[in-house]
Write a structure and sequence with these properties.
10 strands, Beta-Lactamase, single chain, transferase, Biofilm_reg_signaling, five-stranded antiparallel β-sheet, transmembrane helix, PAS-like_dom_sf
Length: about 450
């Protein structure tokens, strides 16, 4: 029921109790001293059990480990030692008067009774700490046997006919409490196991019938020991019958990955106990792979691999990266000024043309307000007015050296999820050269008009 070493040691104590009771009932009840005189002076077995009970409060030690490792041998030895001690002590009592050593017997019994209560107190504290019901049962049962010893010593005169009956009653009560407690504990554990089974079934079904991920478990030799239903029935070639033929990590799917990738995965899992990433198969399929090393016990470990095919998303993402790279190349090399601002009018992107024309560093503009580079009188509501009136706007931008540059801007709203606005994109063109040409045209026309008037007046 319990796998803790402490409970096996306590089991040995009760085996000693039982062997002693049977031995006394069968061989000493009709002896010349009778059970009435023998019960309170059985010191050797009491001392033997006191030594055993000491191991219940000690931390892990070699003796306890050896006793638990060879349980059947430990039970046999406990029985033999108990019978041997009883026989030796009874022979000693037959050869010597019981009364001659009564003070020594009583003194030793009192010392061990105090010792037992000390041990039981420690077990009670452990019961509170570990919240184990079985501790309470064991403490109650052993306490009954200790009370029997106290009663026997308190009424030991060799002629009290009630001692035998009371001792038998207390012995019965000690074992009865233990049996009832163990029965209750078994029922409690059965219920806990049922709840645990239900919880484990949920986790098992979550893995076995996972509709999203493939799950394969490998042993320490990298051979698969389990594959969920999605893996087993994903292809007729990969059925329950031949899943065991897979031999290493590169066979996580029907599409093998390269040996180099397999080695990288294995080295990473060995070193860090996990691996997470995207691996490419030899047929250009892409897998999102998670591998984790889990210790089953102190000696064994398994590798749990979870993966799914993300080829479509992977290719789309790669194409998106290529398109983004092309777009970035265009925007970075175009002569027009391109800016992006969020809904709070913070600058989130500028191309090289903005940096070169205005004289700012990119770090100085990013996350700064758009009004930093606008003419003060045009900085208020320029975006909202543009969108309401027209996307085109001629205005001034302020350089870092406070030089003013005339630009023509086109402002477009960037939508998120086709519903909410994520910000604005502004494309501006320097009008300085155009304005200079316009000014030259005007001056040229003025000069032509002046020449015409001058000729007419002659």
């Amino acid at each position: 029921m319990h796998k803790k070493p402490i409970f096996f040691i306590i089991t040995l104590i009760y085996i000693s109790f039982g062997v002693e009771y049977i031995y006394v009932s069968l061989f000493l009840s009709e002896s010349k001293e009778s059970l009435l005189g023998i019960v309170p002076v059985l010191i050797s077995t009491y001392l033997f059990r006191s030594i055993l009970i000491l191991f219940t409060i000690l931390k892990s030690n070699k003796i306890t480990e050896k006793l638990c490792r060879n349980k059947m041998i430990s039970i046999i030895l406990t029985s033999i030692v108990t019978i041997g001690l009883l026989s030796a002590e009874v022979n000693y009592i037959n050869l010597n008067s019981i009364r001659e050593n009564s003070n020594f017997v009583i003194f030793m019994s009192v010392i061990m009774i105090i010792y037992h209560f000390f041990i039981l107190s420690i077990l009670a504290l452990r019961s509170i700490e570990e919240v184990e019901f079985i501790y309470t049962i064991i403490i109650s049962s052993i306490s009954i046997f200790t009370i029997k010893r106290i009663y026997s010593l308190g009424h030991w005169n060799g002629h009290n006919c009630y001692i035998s009956s009371v001792c038998k009653l207390l012995t019965f009560l000690g074992f009865f409490i233990l049996l009832v407690g163990v029965f209750i504990e078994i029922i409690r554990k059965v219920r806990e196991n049922e709840l645990l089974k239900q919880e484990l079934k949920v986790f098992y079904d979550l893995t076995e019938y996972n509709q999203h991920n493939n799950v394969v478990i490998f042993n320490g030799e990298k051979k698969p020991v389990y594959a969920n239903a999605r893996v087993r029935y994903s292809s007729s070639k990969f059925s329950t019958k031949n899943v065991k033929k897979l031999s290493c990590l590169e066979n996580l799917s029907l599409n093998k990955i390269s040996e180099e990738q397999s080695n990288v995965i294995y080295d990473r899992v060995t070193k860090d106990s996990f691996y997470k990433g995207v691996v490419l198969c030899e047929n250009n399929n892409a897998l999102k792979l998670d591998v984790q090393k889990i210790k089953v016990n102190t000696a064994d470990e398994v590798f749990v691999a979870t993966y799914r095919d993300i080829t479509k998303d992977y290719k789309m993402n790669e194409q998106l990266k290529i398109n983004e790279s092309k777009l970035k190349s265009i925007t970075e090399n175009i002569k027009d000024l391109i800016l992006m601002i969020d809904m709070d009018e913070n600058i989130t992107y500028v191309n090289n043309a903005v940096i070169e024309l205005l004289g700012y560093k990119k770090e100085e503009l990013l996350n700064s307000k758009y009004s930093l580079i606008l003419e003060k009188k045009n900085s208020i509501d320029i975006i909202s007015k543009n969108l309401k009136e027209s996307p085109y706007k001629e205005h001034k931008l302020i350089c870092k050296n406070n030089k003013e540059i005339y630009v023509e801007s086109i402002i477009s709203q960037v939508e998120s999820n086709n519903v909410e606005s994520a910000g604005y994109i502004i494309v501006a063109r320097d009008l300085t050269y155009r304005n200079e040409l316009e000014s030259l045209k005007i001056k040229y026309k003025e000069m032509k008009e002046y020449e015409r008037i001058r000729k007419n007046t002659k």
